C-alpha cells in the first residue's frame, strides 16, 4: 500500500460524493476534528495508573467517535446512503460523564486558567481546538447540509474536555487557578 497517491498534488481532495479544494470548509472542519483527536491521544500518554483508567478508556472511545464525526462531515449529505455514524446516544454519554465529573471536581464559580498537570493542559488544548472545529462546522452548515448531530457532539465534547481536565488536576492534587479578574460566572443550581 502506498501512503501517497499524488491525487491531491493540485490542491484537491476526495470526499464521499465528490472532490473539493483542500481548503474547503468541510475539509477544514474534519481536519480540525483530527487535530482534537491527536491532542487527546497525546494527553492519553500522560494518563497512567489506576487513578485515570476510567478517563483513559473514555478518551479512547471518544477518539473512535471523532473519526465517526469526521466521516459524517466528509460525506455529501444528499449522496449519503444508509445511516450516519454520529448518534444522539454518543451525545448523551458525554452529558452523563460531564455531570459525574462536575460532581467530582471542587465547585467552580469563576473562569480558570488552562493548565495544571501536563495531561490536563493537553486536554485544555484539545478543548480549544474542539471549539474551533465547532465554529467551522457552524460555518459549513451555512453552505451545505450536514448531519446536525456532529455539531451537537462537538459542542458537548468541549464541555466534557473542560470537565475532564479539572478532574485530572483534582485527582493529581493540582488546584485549578482562577482567573483573578473573573466575575462569578458559574452558580450552583441552589443559588
From TrEMBL:
Its EC number is 2.5.1.17. Gene3D superfamilies: Cobalamin adenosyltransferase-like (1.20.1200.10). Residues 3-167 form the Cobalamin adenosyltransferase-like domain. It is an enzyme of class 2 (transferase). NCBIfam families: PduO_Nterm. Belongs to the Cob(I)alamin adenosyltransferase family. This is Corrinoid adenosyltransferase. The lineage of its organism: Bacteria, Bacillati, Bacillota, Bacilli, Bacillales.
Amino acid at each position: 500500500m502506498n501512503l501517497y497517491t499524488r491525487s491531491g498534488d493540485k490542491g484537491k481532495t476526495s470526499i464521499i460524493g465528490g472532490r473539493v479544494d483542500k481548503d474547503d470548509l468541510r475539509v477544514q472542519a474534519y481536519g480540525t476534528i483530527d487535530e482534537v483527536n491527536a491532542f487527546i491521544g497525546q494527553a492519553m500518554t500522560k494518563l497512567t495508573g489506576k487513578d485515570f483508567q476510567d478517563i483513559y478508556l473514555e478518551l479512547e472511545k471518544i477518539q473512535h467517535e471523532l473519526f465517526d464525526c469526521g466521516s459524517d462531515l466528509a460525506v455529501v449529505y444528499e449522496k449519503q446512503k444508509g445511516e450516519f455514524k454520529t448518534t444522539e446516544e454518543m451525545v448523551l454519554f458525554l452529558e452523563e460523564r460531564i455531570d459525574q465529573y462536575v460532581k467530582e471536581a471542587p465547585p467552580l464559580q469563576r473562569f480558570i486558567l488552562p493548565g495544571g498537570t501536563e495531561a490536563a493542559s493537553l486536554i485544555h488544548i484539545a478543548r480549544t481546538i474542539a471549539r474551533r472545529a465547532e465554529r467551522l462546522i457552524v460555518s459549513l452548515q451555512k453552505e451545505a447540509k450536514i448531519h446536525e448531530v456532529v455539531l451537537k457532539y462537538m459542542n458537548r465534547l468541549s464541555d466534557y474536555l473542560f470537565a475532564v481536565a479539572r478532574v485530572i488536576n483534582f485527582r493529581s492534587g493540582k488546584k485549578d487557578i482562577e482567573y483573578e479578574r473573573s466575575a462569578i460566572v458559574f452558580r450552583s443550581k441552589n443559588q
